[in-house]
Amino acid sequence: MQKRSWAEPYKIKMVELLKMTSPEDRRKAILAAGLNTFLLRSEDVYIDLLTDSGVGAMSDRQWSGIMMGDEAYAGSRNFYHMRDTIEAYYSYKYTVPTHQGRGAEHILSKMLIKAGDYIPGNMYFTTTRLHQELAGATFVDVIVDAAHDPDNTMPFKGNVDFDKLNALVDDVGAEKIPYICIATCVNMAGGQPISLRNLKELRVWCDKHDIRFVHDMTRVAENAYFIQKQEIGYADKSIQEIVYEICQLSDIATQSSKKDAMVNIGGFLAMNDAVLYEEACALVVVYEGLHTYGGMAGRDMEALAIGIVESVQDDHIHARVGQVEYLGQRLMDHNVPIVQPVGGHAVFLNARKILPHLRQEHFPAQALSAALYQESGIRSMERGVVSAGRDKDTGENYMPRLELVRLTIPRRVYTQAHMDVTAESVVDVMHKADQVKGLRFTYEPELLRFFQARFEEINPA
What we know:
This protein has 16 helices and 14 strands. It is of the alpha/beta class. The termini are far apart.
């Protein structure tokens, strides 16, 4: 019997009208943006797959919560609702609100890192690594090798390689490692999950070496989906139960709530250590705001509390990841090279294979992202050498094995028809890939250069 189609578990109550543009309009817009999709005006974008951060559609319940905002400077009731929801669904006893995830990363780094430390993690993330480096630490990648191979179909490519972890301890000593930072559904690896078995082994390892376990839980619900579908013993567990079990294994968590929890702004630092919490409260006052609002308005904390509850509902997460899988399958049906398996929040195009005539130093992923916008008005994001940045000691570009373009699906925003248009547009660009030119910098910021860098095309000799 043929598998039946599925539909999104929501109906549309309000629409935002989009501006349709011509190829000439798009060429002018992308050149004015320095061939950087971050610098495009959103009004010039048709389907916006730049990010899933803060761009999801909130539910009617969340919008109702907005009207319940208690904007008291201290002791807002929305803070206590958010705090209690985080403990009930994520297990953490103490919560410090921040304006978004990088605010939590900043406070965490200020508290725990000293110059000369090493922070292992299952692949870097841009802002996370930068905060660690600014605090004086060195990031060390301890993810399994399969994560760096876009064609490897290992189901849990977010897993930690314990041989790499043990080698780091042997080399620098456990006292030089204040914590290990583990992301659930690893963004830079293609949205790849980590297994609960691996997480449980990591908990034992951290206890053995007296090293804290920090959880970057930005996409924990998506990770729970893959555990439910692929890990033995979890098929009958709910997403909510799996999320709670994941969180219980860690000591501290950072979250950009603009992803899984489906709010437009907000994040938090959460933990189970009362002493550490007091220190975090002192720092959040310096950098964000009072400890009962951090960088968030009361209305945003209320929407976040409601979003957490909605994010762990099975119907929601199955449709959310299902839409990503649908786009990935459409692309694979047309032999478009992508990172496999398809991850939880985005489909990642393998720019090296799509543009084999471009050397990596000519930024093929950046060039492909610009070309896709020119073709169709679809905005995507580079995740390759430009995002990787430069070695702080040598000044040389990092050359990651993964040179990718990310098609990031906002939650509850687009229909499958939008995914069909996206797939068709990528195929059209691939068929004329030899026309895509390499790029070079005309402006390169020192930090997080991918946000504001500008480029020009390199004309063939």
